[in-house]
Amino acid sequence: MTAVNPMDGASVLAAFGALGVLVVIFAESGLLVFGFFLPGDTLLFPAGVLCAGTADQAPRLVLWQVLLCAAVGAVAGGQVGFLLGRHGGRALLARTERRRVRETAVRAEKLLARYGYGKALVIGRFVPMVRTVLHPAAGALGVPTRTFTIWQIVGGLLWSQSLVLAGYALGASVPDIDDYLLPLVAVVVLVSLLPLLPVLTESRRARRDR
Predict the structure, then answer these.
(1) pTM of the model
(2) Of 35, 141, 171, 185, which residue is the least packed, with the fewest Cβ within 10 Å?
(3) 142 assigned to some structural domain
(4) Assign residue 128 a region: left if phi > 0, alpha if psi is -120 to 50, beta otherwise?
(5) Which domain holds residue 63?
(6) Are 49 and 13 in contact (CB under 8 A)?
(7) Average model confidence (pLDDT) for the chain?
(8) Where is the signal peptide (predicted)?
(9) Which residues are within 8 A (CB) of 47 and not within 5 positions of it... i.e. 6 or more apart?
(10) pLDDT value at position 1?
(11) Cα gap 60→180, rounded to integer Å
């Protein structure tokens, strides 16, 4: 039996299918240090592609199952992350030895401050790594539970469903899409980093002004 690499979306999908989507997206959406390096965009988009059948091959995953598992994992993971942040999340972030986790936590806080709670929670879902830290950071910063819950559900559903459906649409319309999957995933990740540009620009300006 081939070992499963949890940081490789293709490996997770091949071993567990839609159930793997639920577990990984749940962890990536809120389990902080553990979920920080798990695939999100690079799991949802290929999962959508695998739901599309072609003339030569039947669908390898069932679309409604992937959509449901992605939605449940995103929403439940976000809420758990918030609760972890509310109950000791700041102390956990302070104790972590991973520099990238600490730096991303600062960016998540700046995102909340720049865009406000609702917009930041929706935008942050589309930014790799930030979405893992954003929900615990929101809990630690005292974002009202009702506000957080509403907007994290909106963001979680928009993010998870749009990526799966985008993959499905391309898989259904482009022949041999598997041959271009890696470049497409890279494009998805690069586009998802765009909301961080204003935050990064402000950080550079602040460092120059010191």
Answers:
(1) 0.80
(2) 141
(3) yes
(4) beta
(5) 9-193
(6) no
(7) 79
(8) none
(9) 9, 13, 18, 21, 61, 66, 70, 164, 167
(10) 42
(11) 17
